[in-house]
Amino acid sequence: MGEVINSSIEGYKDLLKSFIETQDERSLYGVEMMSKSFLKNNILPEEIVDMHIQALEELYPELSQEVKHSMNFLLEAMISYGIKQQEIQSLKEKQF
Amino acid sequence: MGEVINSSIEGYKDLLKSFIETQDERSLYGVEMMSKSFLKNNILPEEIVDMHIQALEELYPELSQEVKHSMNFLLEAMISYGIKQQEIQSLKEKQF
After folding, report:
1. What angle do CA B56, B10, A82 make, to 5 degrees?
2. Is the CB of B32 less than 8 angstroms away from the CB of A76?
3. Could you say which of B19, B36, B76 has the minimum Cβ distance to residue A31?
4. Residue B3: Cβ within 10 Å count
5. Residue A68: left if φ>0, alpha if ψ -120 to 50, beta else—which one?
6. pLDDT means per 10 residues in chain B (96 residues)?
7. What is the pTM of this model?
8. Residue ranges per structural domain of chain B
9. Secondary structure letter of residue A28 according to DSSP
10. Chain B residues within 8 A of A84 when measuring between CB atoms
């Protein structure tokens, strides 16, 4: 799981940069595909938020502390969803 | 579902403000509880991101366009997770 996330950060950051600059449909389509791939690889929602924070900090080193703190808060708001996803995954693995 | 989100925005915004200002454990515990309640009420991950954007814009009306665009991008990255959650919910409803 860690590997998928690590190898995705650069791609995510590039798409994010392109979307911020142009708000084009192509970047949105790209992130839609990426989202499907994350889910397929059992990446948790809070891991996506974490990757987003990392990408944002790399693109904007001057990012305000308020925004950084707020993103950590959002990450926390996703944790129940990650726990649920892991439970479902674990049930699936037991079934097959 | 819409009602749960609408009545939660103020609470979420207050907790977020408190966390940004103090980074205290109490706010993190609060959002952890809120996260469980959102999941129980079948709120989708992208709806949480959407609520986060709204709260952040209300707290910081001067929020940069870059951050706003980036949050819309993150929302898009969560959509597959929401679709999956709805599929699971729909299967559950068929079973009972």
Report:
1. 70
2. yes
3. B76
4. 8
5. alpha
6. 77 96 95 95 96 96 96 97 93 85
7. 0.93
8. 2-95
9. H
10. 39
Tokens matching residue B41: 């009420």
CA distances in angstroms from B56 to A49, A68, A69, A93, B35, listed in the order given: 16, 12, 11, 39, 17
**CATH homologous superfamily for the domain A2-95:** KaiA/RbsU domain (1.10.1240.30)
The upper half-sphere exposure of residue B86, i.e. CA atoms within 13 Å in the direction of its Cβ, equals: 11
The residues on B that touch A, with CB distances below 8 Å, are: 12, 15-16, 19-20, 23, 27-28, 31-32, 34-36, 38-39, 45, 48-49, 52, 56, 60, 63, 66-67, 69-70, 72-74, 76-81, 84-85, 88
Q: Say which amino acid occupies A68.
A: K
Nearest to A65 by CA among B49, B19, B70, B11: B19
Degrees to nearest 5, angle at CA B24 with B23 and B27: 100
- Tens-digit pLDDT string for chain A (96 aa): 567 777 789 999 999 999 999 999 999 999 999 999 999 999 999 999 999 999 999 999 999 999 999 999 999 999 999 999 999 989 888 887
